[in-house]
Queue: 3 jobs
Job 1
Amino acid sequence: MTKQRKCSVLGVAVVAAAVLLFFGSCGAAQAPPPAEEMQTFVRKFISWDDARLDGYSYDNGYGDEQQQGEARPSYGEAYYKGSRVIVVDQNGGGDSVTVQGAVDLVHEFNTQRVKIHILPGTYREKVVVPVTKPYVSLIGNESDVSKTVITWHNKASDLDSRGIELGTFKSASVTVLSDFFCATGITFENSVVAVPGGYGMQAVALRVAGDKAFFYRVKIKGSQDTLLDETGSHYYYQSHILGSIDFIFGRGRTLFQDCVVESTAENYGAIAAHHRDSAEEDTGFSFVGCLIRGTGKILLGRAWGNCSRVIYSYCHIDDVITPPGWSDWDKPDRQRTAVFGEYRCKGRGADTRRRVAWAKTHFTLQEVKPFLDLRFIDGHQWLRL
Ligand SMILES: *[C@@H]1O[C@H](CO)[C@@H](O)[C@H](O)[C@H]1NC(C)=O
Ligand SMILES: *[C@@H]1O[C@H](CO)[C@@H](O)[C@H](O)[C@H]1NC(C)=O
């Protein structure tokens, strides 16, 4: 049997297993239904179950579909509570020794959640989750995010194999292009440290360009341009983001809730550079209940595009903010159109008396309400947490 043939047989087995699960059939395995029919079972939401492997133990038994003592199926064909689980183990005991190797085992155009369980270790590699592979979860240990690290060290000025500069976007250590992505208990790192004023030092740790993504207890660590929240609706909950210059940037519509946002800047920098060109774009970065700390001094945000939108509500802000707070990116016209504001923040860095005059330091509850919870990202449509 050629390798390819073997793969396609395994593929059919997976579909059949999924069908059995959904119909609860106890008869003989039947032919998989046509693709159209499968569509009716596609879950267009993310739940806690997708972000976790509660009760799953890699050490004893491999999920509830396995009989005791039975050998674990190869090629990551194990199932646990109805989801396929692929194990990444640096030491060779899993389905793959690399994270990318596990992503490669996910079938294209999959319609079911696939959980990639990454065992503790530092994985030195670049990872891309392609647009053709939705419903992927990367799961480490939610109690200890430092145990499972994916790290690389490209910066924008590095050259590719053809001698062309990578640019910021392609510097990312981990790139997510697909929809309905989840990650829990993982550190995403770009280990390049920006030299202030240095050329091409942008070095992305995590780039999220898929729609509808959920991050729970992850750490995103870099220096300049750490998190490229490129496009789509995203939810970061109880996560930790570190950097110095524009370290959360992009065109996302994104809620950061109960997160730690940590400045590693020495003299200057900025937390958020949200990119929004017109008032019609339903995007923005909303920080709710976050802790802003670190070294400093940095700005809360810079206006990338005329209508950049960044709001901090109910945050605790340490003394790490440059008093003016916000920058128009040397484009005074943007002072009229940027939506930058703070609502009921506390801490020494939350003193708004010396903020730029054009920032919204006196939001009413009515004005700020659309940004305060999951409704901002239409979470009721795609999150069931
Ligand atoms: C996760 O990390 C915690 C804290 O270090 C540890 O007690 C626990 O055993 C870890 N869980 C697994 C499954 O490794
Ligand atoms: C931004 O605003 C300036 C000044 O009002 C205008 O000339 C420019 O076309 C705007 N840019 C976009 C992308 O709309």
Note: The longest strand covers residues 83-88.
Job 2
Amino acid sequence: MTSNAPAQDARQKLLAANAAAANALRQRFAAAGTLVVNLISSPGSGKTTLLEQTAKRLAGGHRLAAIVGDIATERDADRLRAAGLPAHQIVTGGACHLDARMIEQVLSPDAVGAERFEDLDLLFVENVGNLVCPANYDLGEQCKVVLLSVTEGGDKPFKYPGIFSKADVALITKLDLLPYVPFDVATVRAEIATLRPSGTILEVSSTTGAGLDAWCDLLTQRMAACKSITTV
Ligand SMILES: Nc1nc2c(ncn2[C@@H]2O[C@H](COP(=O)(O)OP(=O)(O)OP(=O)(O)O)[C@@H](O)[C@H]2O)c(=O)[nH]1
Ligand SMILES: [Mg+2]
Ligand SMILES: [Zn+2]
């Protein structure tokens, strides 16, 4: 019988090294008073579109930037920059999640454009589109946000419990499409709340703007909380 113990051991070591790097990043962000939000969802749930709309609403009064991960292309960073959000694209070349070392490299003083990531009020990290392993890789964020679009089906929270139990905020996205798809918001809300009783659930549409004020208010409150911890 073959054992998979060596593989499990290697995975434990990898996750432990990631956790150490993430904790160092978290301390650094806390000292700078920067709120870091890690956005996680399956491909196409609306992460980049939400950030485009969020930038329009918040960029005037706050210093914002984004780091965005994809397997290939600079497309998302190009979109975010066009929306006025300074953005750095991490092209993973195949890896289906970001890890803390990748964030550390973007912030390193030697990295091209590293200065854009200093003195921020809010740093968004848009993870690679994937509901599974991004849940296991801490990036030093204060807050994981999971997005679930109404077109993906309401069965997803219980099928992917890892991310829905770890995310402090769940966004039900593409609310404008609700009339066209079977998606029972009350049931989905109840299932998400079962997995994360203390979490916040918001319903949003980046197309109509519904729910975006509540989302931006939540971010503004959390930015203020980060600053008050720094100044105590
Ligand atoms: N109807 C509707 N469409 C939306 C909404 N938000 C995003 N979309 C569309 O959904 C598609 C995917 O949106 P993206 O923002 O690129 O999704 P993403 O999560 O960033 O995708 P990946 O980066 O590939 O994982 C695009 O065609 C968007 O225009 C919304 O609120 N309503
Ligand atoms: Mg995207
Ligand atoms: Zn992965």
Note: Residues 41, 43-49, 76, 129, 173-174, 176-177, 205-207 surround guanosine-5'-triphosphate (ligand 1) (CB under 6 Å).
Job 3
Amino acid sequence: MKKQNILLLSLVTVVLVNYGADLNAAETAPEKTVNCGKAKGKITIDGDLKDWAKAEPAYVTKSDSYVEKGKVKDDSDLSVAFYTLYDEENIYFAAVVTDDEVVTRQKDGAIWQDDCIEIWLDNADDSTTPIMFADDDYQIGLSPQSGGRRSAESYVWHNPDADLVMKEIKVSSTLTDKGYIIEASIPIKVLYELDPKSQKVIGFNISVCDLDKDGVWTHITWSGKLHSDPTQFGKLYFAE
Ligand SMILES: [Ca+2]
Ligand SMILES: [Ca+2]
Ligand SMILES: [Ca+2]
């Protein structure tokens, strides 16, 4: 074999080995899980979580999660405690977000460009390819009020019946001295193949967008290395 061919083969081998190692890291990381408990009382969507007794947090932080884009300086720049609950009618989502600069300027399907929480559902927990858009898959965005916007916004992507969910979703937020709190509810009946009473588990992910005043947009993901790939989602278990 000529010398330059050996060099080329070595280079290709190094590239393939590194690429393979990266993919395997996502596959062999311990699976993220969170329990979604049954609400003990009425949950009011008002951006105040005093009605959220005993919900289990899932943390999305620089040390616990994967920074897909941008940079997280420290936990005061961006860190999130995320909560879920359900009752007879609704599934509930809430997040206590530490973000040093709350920036929201967009509306509707563009809210991912602002400070925003994204919830990813694979209700049948049946995805075998990295592609969403099945009847039971949803991407749900929640973005807070701020100086640039008077009320919280929500949006639903990646589902054939996204409009139905958008009509029924409720969202509210409050600003805090460290960032914001956001709270939302969705009627279970409008989410395809979701039934917390008879179902144990769904595929689940959380990603968080952080836009700061320097214009840098950061995106971090709770489970896996690609927020939108349902084969890398964690699991949400329904509990009493
Ligand atoms: Ca509340
Ligand atoms: Ca920030
Ligand atoms: Ca921000």
Note: The helical segments are 3-28, 162-168.
